[in-house]
Aldehyde-activating protein
Amino acid sequence: MNDSQGDDTVHQGGCLCGAVRYRTTGKPNDTNICYCTQCQRQSGAPMPAFANFDRDKVELVQGEPGSYRASGTASRQFCANCGSWLFWMQDGGTRISITLGSFDDPSDFPAPDYEIWTEHRIKWLSNIPGVDSYPGDN
């Protein structure tokens, strides 16, 4: 993220159909790529990307997302109307992972700080140069 963005930086995003909209305030704690099989299946992509914020920096401004639990440790939220995946939240956690592609301008965010669950990376993909990689969660 460029240095001109301070704690008052606002990013907005939402689902494909516009039924669910959100707003974040400040810089993300970090950005990442996840290769876990659950993220691959939910997104339909080999490597979904996320910006991670403290929950108190994220505001739902329109609509109410649906929720799904693919594991006993986290919830995945999406638009119940169009199916766009929006959020991943660990039970009892203080942070929320927001799918980078759901932001209005995902190019406002920096390259990923790290890659997780690389043991599930599709074979024809390689490490992102200069990015920390973890075979499981970091």
About this structure: The first strand starts at residue 10 and ends at 14. The two ends are 21 Å apart (CA to CA). Helices lie at 37-43.
